């Protein structure tokens, strides 16, 4: 009789645990992907029934780069897939894994998400929710995550400033809450801003959640890893209908959901693992954060409100340049202008995320990475701001011609 391979006791236990975890998590992830794809497909194929309510029309605003009315309630499919996957994961989990899942308070996390998602869905249908109300509900979502799930940003990762703030009795008590509200509300808004091209939001989300899942796994944060993987599966199910052709848009509700999910995972990861630098949290989301802050600065410089919608984001400029080049050369852009600008922006946004994956504990290197990306972002945007555009290219940038 041939004897099977022998493993040391610890290695054998780890191997068995890994195999069991794989078997437990695979079906819920498949369910998350399948449920999202199924509902997304239904929304696309029944569009004639609901497009008058859910349609995103090209002439509806300066940030619209598509050419035909498209349903913008893909967030419904993403939420359904995410909740289905998490429910199946929790029900299939053995006792030890369920304890880890309970430790991140999934009920509290969902409680923070639902009002934010509901408001986004109202905006996707009515298109009349004020910026102030959106910001207020995002702050409430952060407060619920703070109070019900223990999602907290205790410090900024800047020793001098942290010592100053935390050294003041009253402010030190309020600082973690204020930091958390700013982080959650800011991330929700930032992911909504980058949702401007086919596959752009989905692609950036898959990159960020993939890195968060990998780093969580390396620090034995199994619950956070599975939460990130479930988010990836749901996002991938939606992406099938969003890239390269945008047959369904994520909408505000979907962007808010994704922004909230990323925010709570990265905050919990840094909070639960003190060895991970807070700068890792910034590095993995540096593109949407930089896009948001740079856009606010650009608008203020023009005498506008920092929340005034426009079409001068990096992805919009890239689309205009591709259209200009196509007009000049007579050659079509591979995958089309929209998808072509999307994958180029994703490649740019993905570089710091992938680099941060190998540097989660190295604060100085992460700080340099963040600064380098901001400099590169500004340089590329300036290069893309060409002084002359064809009429077709200008349509991607004008507040009047869409």
What features would you describe in this structure?
The chain has helices at residues 9-45, 47-54, 74-92, 95-103, 106-126, 131-149, 159-166, 169-193, 200-218, 222-239, 251-272, 278-284, 286-301, 314-329, 337-356, 363-384, 391-394; strands at residues 55-56, 70-71. The chain has one domain. A two-stranded antiparallel sheet has the order 1-2. Residues 1-17 have low confidence and may be disordered. It is globular and about 60 Å long. With 402 residues, it is mainly α.
Question: Topology of this protein?
Answer:
Layout: H1 9-45, H2 47-54, E1 55-56, E2 70-71, H3 74-92, H4 95-103, H5 106-126, H6 131-149, H7 159-166, H8 169-193, H9 200-218, H10 222-239, H11 251-272, H12 278-284, H13 286-301, H14 314-329, H15 337-356, H16 363-384, H17 391-394
Antiparallel strand pairs: 1-2
């Amino acid at each position: 009789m041939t004897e099977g391979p022998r493993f040391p006791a610890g290695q054998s236990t780890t191997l068995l645990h890994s195999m069991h975890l794989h078997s437990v998590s695979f079906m819920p992830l498949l369910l998350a992907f399948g449920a999202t794809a199924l509902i997304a497909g239904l929304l696309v194929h029944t569009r004639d029934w609901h497009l008058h309510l859910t349609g995103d029309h090209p002439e509806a605003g300066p940030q619209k780069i598509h050419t035909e009315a498209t349903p913008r309630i893909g967030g419904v499919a993403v939420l359904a897939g995410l909740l289905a996957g998490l429910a199946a994961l929790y029900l299939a989990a053995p006792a030890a894994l369920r304890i880890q899942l309970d430790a991140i308070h999934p009920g509290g996390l969902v409680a923070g998400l639902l009002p934010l998602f509901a408001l986004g869905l109202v905006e996707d249908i009515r298109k009349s929710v004020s910026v102030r109300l959106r910001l207020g509900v995002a702050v409430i979502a952060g407060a619920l995550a703070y109070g019900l799930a223990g999602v907290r940003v205790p410090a900024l990762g800047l020793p001098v400033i942290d010592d100053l703030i935390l050294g003041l009795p009253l402010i030190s008590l309020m600082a973690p809450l204020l930091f958390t509200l700013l982080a959650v509300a800011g991330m929700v808004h930032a992911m909504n801003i980058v949702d401007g091209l086919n596959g752009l939001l989905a692609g950036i989300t898959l990159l960020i959640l993939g890195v968060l899942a990998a780093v969580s796994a390396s620090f034995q944060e199994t619950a956070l890893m599975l939460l990130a993987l479930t988010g990836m599966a749901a996002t991938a199910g939606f992406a099938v209908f969003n890239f390269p052709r945008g047959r369904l848009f994520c909408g505000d509700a979907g962007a808010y959901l994704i922004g909230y999910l990323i925010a709570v995972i990265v905050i919990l990861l840094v909070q639960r693992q003190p060895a991970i630098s807070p700068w890792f949290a910034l590095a993995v989301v540096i593109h949407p954060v930089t896009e948001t802050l740079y856009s606010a600065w650009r608008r203020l410089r023009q005498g506008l409100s920092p929340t005034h919608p426009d079409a001068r984001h990096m992805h919009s400029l890239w689309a205009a340049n591709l259209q200009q080049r196509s007009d000049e050369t007579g050659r079509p852009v591979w995958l089309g202008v929209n998808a072509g600008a999307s994958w180029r922006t994703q490649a740019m946004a993905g570089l710091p995320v992938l680099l941060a994956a190998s540097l989660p504990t190295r604060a100085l290197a992460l700080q340099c990475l963040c600064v380098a990306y901001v400099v590169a972002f500004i340089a590329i945007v300036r290069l893309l701001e060409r002084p002359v555009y064809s009429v077709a290219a200008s349509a991607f940038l004008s507040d009047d011609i869409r």
